[in-house]
Amino acid sequence: MIHITASMLVEKKACANQVAKFKELFPCGVTPTLALCIEHASVFDWNWAARNFLSAPAEAEYCKAEESAEAEYNKATAPAWAEYNKATAPAWAEYLKAKASALAEYNKATAPAWAEYLKAKAPALAEYNKATESASAKYRKAKASASAEYNKATASAWAEYGKAEASAFFNALDSES
Question: Disulfide check for 146: which of 34, 76, 87, 137 has CB 3.0–4.6 Å away?
Answer without folding.
Answer: 87
